[in-house]
Amino acid sequence: MEETDTAVLPRIATETFPPWVVCPQCNRVAANGHDVFVKYFEGHALVCGCGHEFDWWDTLLEQVTEHFMLRGAFEAIGASTSVFEIEVKADANVELDFRKFGVPDGARILWLNYTGYGEGPSPIEFHGNTPHQRPYDLRRFIYGARWGRLPAVGRVGVAATWIKTDEDEAAISQLVTAAVSYSDADYRSMVLAANIAAETSITRAVAAAVARYANKDTTRAFLADAATYSYQLKVLLPMIADLFRSPQLPEHIRQRLDALRRLRNEIAHEGKAKRPISQADAGNGLTAAIFGEHYGRLLHSVVSSSEGAAPCSAPSAG
Ligand SMILES: [Zn+2]
Q1: pTM summary value
Q2: How many domains is the chain built from?
Q3: 209 and 296 together in one domain
């Protein structure tokens, strides 16, 4: 390495795209955000500008299962993509600081693409003696490898798919872990994290509802010792949705979340699943967890904003 330079300013504007899905009919992109899931749970039609009506479950499931270019599942969990251009130099490193191109400090990089344009040095992510990069490392070096008598300078398009989660967003952090494990085809780890993501979000909403009728200690003991996640899914969730006039969790998603929960128990108790987990099974489980996380968020906000029953001062469990 002869020299180290800071990455030059991009010739095209840096652009950061929010998570999206692609319309199967017109190939235009449509936004994927929490409000879309809320509309789905509320039973509203989701229509593209071209008139195509999305079935939100089918659309997300396809995106996760296809995992196009090993990126689809990351967009499905809500990752953004920053796209920009840098200049590479032959036989030299340029410093690439993603924070200068729309990736926020503390973000985790989930997917990267370097595409060289025309003739010029090939972009190689440079490393020290250990080639592994950490996903939170937002400063990297790009080496311009010249094969033969190519020009000494070239342009490289960079796309970085990233997500930033706050420490208190436990459910989303677990979804990120699940999507990374899914992308690595480590489906056992994916099942564990995906189940935690859905359970954390749903239990948070259930606890907020139960806490309207019982004190903190009783609520905690009730959900830990009596109405565990399985019963929350099957009994408390539909009751609470009715009580607080929230949309119901669609039955097919409830069943898939229950299947994910059982698979998690097999792995946690036996060390492995009874049957090998296929990519299709894993994609189904991850998609269910994404919907479960959003549903828990919706229910929690409905319960929190309702003026219903006041917190009661019931005696604690004994
Ligand atoms: Zn369309």
Answers
A1: 0.90
A2: 3
A3: yes
